[in-house]
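Input sequence (88 aa), recorded before submission:
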Amino acid sequence: MRDEYDFSKAKRGAVLSSPGKTRITIMLDDTVIEHFRAQAEAEGIGYQTLINSILRKAATGVGKSKPEAKPITVATLRRVLREELHTS
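Predicted structure, token format:
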């Protein structure tokens, strides 16, 4: 290695941006990071990629089971019957 380097004509490299992504700072619990790092390593992907895909699924509802239908109440049943009898 040289004792001195000449950086007088050096140029700072361009920061590469990722289209469709925004760099942010987020504070997560250590246990959460450890969990995702371990899971990502087992799957052979980056932990940030894993966190992003899980957040995307949660935000878009992909992979969610359909919400269960609410039970019909007596009041709802009476209203529906009145509407149907009235239109017949």
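Checked by second reader. Residues 2 and 8 are 16 Å apart (CA to CA).
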